[in-house]
UniProtKB/TrEMBL annotation:
CDD domains membership: WHTH_GntR
Sample GO molecular function, one term: DNA-binding transcription factor activity
Organism of provenance: Alkalibaculum bacchi
Protein name (record): GntR family transcriptional regulator
Keywords in alphabetical order: DNA-binding, Transcription, Transcription regulation
């Protein structure tokens, strides 16, 4: 999963979102050691201070923790990772529903489309 950063929002906020995604997707599994700030910054092509700010934000949220002299690790709290995954899913669904509403679809039509795409109408 590559880094996809745009200039329309603060970079550190985008980094937080993308690291959350990588944790939820298992790219950074629960309890695993995170790469160093410099390695992550180089990989994402951002300033190390910006990456440091993003990682600090994830520590504040509880998704990462620091062990002195050993580095940063992904939380071992599986429920917290599930809550983050649910939060990210809700954000995506809200964006989807807003766009469908802008296209003029009603709730029932949206459900019908989703049901047919997911195979829910199959008997």
């Amino acid at each position: 999963m590559s880094w996809d950063l745009s200039s329309d929002r603060p970079i550190y906020a985008q980094l937080i979102e993308q690291i959350e995604l990588k944790i939820c997707a298992g790219i950074y599994p629960s309890g695993s050691k995170m790469p160093s700030v410099r390695d992550l910054a180089q990989e994402a092509a951002v300033n190390p201070n910006t990456m440091q700010r993003a990682l600090s934000g994830l520590e504040d949220a509880g998704l990462l923790y620091t062990q002195r002299t050993s580095g940063r690790f992904v939380t071992e709290d599986v429920d917290m990772i599930k809550q983050t995954r649910t939060k990210l899913a809700k954000e995506q669904i809200e964006v989807f529903l807003k766009k469908m509403s802008e296209l003029g679809f009603k709730h029932e039509e949206i459900v019908e489309i989703l049901s047919s795409l997911s195979g829910g109408n199959e008997k």
